[in-house]
Amino acid sequence: MAGNDWINSYLEAILDVGPGLDDKNSSLMLRERGKFSPTRYFVEEVITKFDETDLRRSWAMASSIRDSEERNTRLENMSWRIWNLARQKKKLGEGAQQKRKQKRELSRVPKPLLADMPEELSEGEKGDTVNDISPKGGVSTKGGMKRINSVDVLKNFATQQKEKKLYIVLISLHGLIRGENMELGRDSDTGGQVKYVVELARALGAMPGVYRVDLLTRQVLAPGVDWSYGEPTEMLNPLNDDDCESGESSGAYIIRIPFGPKDKYIPKELLWPHIPEFVDGALSYILHMSKVLSEQIGDGKPVWPASIHGHYADAGNAAALLSGALNVPMLFTGHSLGRDKLEQILKQGRQSKDDINTTYRIMRRIEAEEISVDTSEVIITSTRQEIDEQWGLYDAFDPVLERKLRARNKRNVSCFGRFTPRPIVIPPGMEFKHIVPNSGGVDDDLQGHQESLTTPNPPVWSEITRFFTNPHKPIILALARPDPKKNLTTLVKAFGECRALRDLANLTLIMGNRDNIDEMSGTNSTVLLSILKLIDKYDMYGQVSYPKHHKQSEVPDIYRLAARTKGVFINPAFIEPFGLTLIEAAAYGLPMVATKNGGPVDIKKALDNGLLVDPHDQQSIADALLKLVADKQLWSKCKQNGLENIHLFSWPEHCKTYLARIACCRPRYPQWESCAVGYEYSESQSPEDSLRDLNDLKISLEGVINDQGSVDSSQKADMTSQSLKSKSSVGKKLENLAKLPVKEKSGGNKVETLARIGSQDTIEFPGLRRNKTVFVVAVDCGLTKDFVDIMNMIHEIVRVDKKGGNLGFILSTASSISEIHSFMKSSNIEFSEFDALICNSGSDIYYPSSSCEGSPKSLPFVADSDYSSHVDYRWGGDHLKNTLVHWASSLRERKEDKELIVECDSESKHCFAFKIKNFESIPPVKDLREFLRKQALRCRAVYCQNGTKLNVIPVVASRAQALRYLYVRWGMNLANTVVIMGDYGDTDYECLRGGIHKTVVINGVCNEARKLHSNRSYPLEHVIANDTPNVVQVEECKKDQVIEAMAKLQV
């Protein structure tokens, strides 16, 4: 073989290693065999796996060269390139990925858990992983989704669920959402998520056992937006009337809550400051619906949501707050995750991290996703890849640790106070009832021709084909917004530079709706202009279609047109969270070419109806499209596979799995559900009823208790008889009163008597319910002289109308109850002036009481035990405390300062407090949150009192959440609540600045707290709205200015 040294060296390598083909244990993977078989590699990889047409083209080009030396060199380069590159990719790529994954997993598992948990998964852990979808028979060997094979299966499921009457709440905040004629592609916020949540709500509403589904979103009354988006309520038409629950309020509804600027339609990046306002409005609506449903299906008892499901980061943040306020389970679906998007944009190298944060508010979005993980019971994803590669990037979630904790829970073994939500793969569903694709037989062309002669073509067909010189060629269809992440420019380049592909097919780009490019958003118009320039550059006129308008109802016709021409559907996005359009295309008989990043991997695995490509590799996109368009046998096989396996993505399958996961969640409801009083007067608009109830109580007290301090026997008999006949709140109060000692009954201090009753396990009537306006002092300057002056000033303002009983007073602080008591006593502030005290950064609520019995350290306050139970969710207790003590100790050792941070007594089981000597030497709050989340400890860390104190409280507790609790529990009117605060405050300061309550900001107060916000992951400006009418700022802490500010707020 003279002159063919490359062949000689190849054969010598084969002879040196040995054939390996007859070895039963032979394998290409080095980690399995420990050596490499070139013979097997050449046969199975070079000859079998690589595209035959490409090899032939390369061989023909090399063989046509007359110069034998150059010919041999090119042949050598071709073969060795195939061998070496593919071998290195397989060897190094998988090996490096495995090492990175192992390193990340080991570094993220908390050390305290490593000591108690085995490194290898046990059999129970291995067998309880997230299920995969199998295209074979509809059921995988690991317990995947089951196929609905008959009507009997659905009937059996309906029989099992018919006794349940669930109320489910879904939340999706951004974009324009309506049930019919959705304007998908109108902007970057109105995309696939909008369609998904609407169809999910409609499908759940038709499931047996589900009485009502509410999809909560934003009410939009902006100019240029259709009036339908301003309708408060829209009923969704059911998929099948036979499956729906019958009832006055049953079914699925879109509920639009007003929040944010009333006359503006704003993008999702600017919604963050207004989310607390949505939470307050949604809370009011759910309480109202709870009462309505109690009369219809609850036998007079409140019907709380079975779950609250947040979609995307903004809705996840809102769902976390609503779930915490109502104490009901939360579910979360990210759709698209911030950390993954940040990495993708940084890889492009076009923007810095600061620029990305300014444009997309990406750090606030990531924090919202972390909060959602902290609170969620279940994380619903569309693909397994999303769990392993995307959620694994978050501090609050570790897939390996989640499996270990789940296994320990099943065995009733301690998890050391750690909690992690359960990730579940539930692919989005689709309604296939109206889809009638071609059968895929040999007579398809004849059938399509006959149909075209008898039925007119849909109008959208002519709108697309008018661009083409030859409209009969196969259509390569892309349906996506002109967004950079959709990668449409790379698709156009691939099509333009591949002459063979242009000769065989046309390209259709459905890029939403537009009237004028200049009126589009900046990024969308930039992408569209780039595409138009590329069309001109490659002279693709007559080969590319890009219609300006289409209706949502015309999308099925667009799929049918592409399928009739034997075309291909392509999704070239850099990363696709799921890819619902791929499912739709498969249902209409279209093979797919899709990105290998994200959901299409699972879709391809389930449907086996196309090819996956690297979205960054322009040539691979062109090759995959050419392969499907040119090979009609492969095209038909992909089409048939898609149609056979599409049942895996039906809505009934999705909803069955969805409801099963809800049923597995531990039921959580408000702790005071048994208390009729708390429920009966939960509406903030009816303080008159509460006042009338108290007047009735006063009259009853005067009639029952005589001057000698004894109870008249006839009165007592009447009272007993009445209590047996009626379960009214007044009767219950009289029963409690009758049980009191005679000494307490005869006392002249009615406040003492009421407080004693309130000190029972269920506090029944604080003064908050009868107050029309409540002032909340939340000035975070510490218990100093300035704070005393502010308190006295507010007292003077409030005391003017206090005699009429119309105004309430609440103190909201990071201090403990003992610190507050000492401060009030030294400052001569009357305890009875307050209706409630929110202490320890919101982990405790106390009410004033003249009785010291049962109160901490015999102080004149009584704790709200219901609130204590309410915030106990996922509280780590002593395990959390031990971790914090260890963290503080290591910090002292590292800084060589024994007094740097020292534990102190918060007098609360739900607050661990530490005194800080030097705040500059302490890690910022974002680092502490990251540390605790990586330990799977669900809590809030708050730096307070100008950086001299650290409070760690439950994840569902905060000062803002405490106010919502008072609203839900006692009917305190949030809309008539005035929060008084400084221009800076504790690190939980931002949560009090938003909502439907009114806010007075005193400038110049709490300036020392500015340092607490100097090292944030996102600036305060991203989450605080200063242009809202509910916030008024005053220049100085003076009485006349505060009164003027309250007048502006119409207090």
TrEMBL record:
Described function: Plays a role in photosynthetic sucrose synthesis by catalyzing the rate-limiting step of sucrose biosynthesis from UDP-glucose and fructose- 6-phosphate. Involved in the regulation of carbon partitioning in the leaves of plants. May regulate the synthesis of sucrose and therefore play a major role as a limiting factor in the export of photoassimilates out of the leaf. Plays a role for sucrose availability that is essential for plant growth and fiber elongation.
Pathway in which this enzyme or protein is active: Glycan biosynthesis; sucrose biosynthesis; sucrose from D-fructose 6-phosphate and UDP-alpha-D-glucose: step 1/2
Chain ranges of the Nitrogen regulatory protein areA GATA-like domain: 58-84
Biased composition regions of type Polar residues, renumbered to the chain: 709-720
Domain Sucrose synthase first GT-B: 167-431
UniProtKB keywords: Glycosyltransferase, Transferase
Pfam family for this entry, one: GATA_AreA
Region (Disordered): 91-141, 709-730
Span of domain Sucrose phosphatase-like: 774-1004
Name this protein carries in UniProt: Sucrose-phosphate synthase
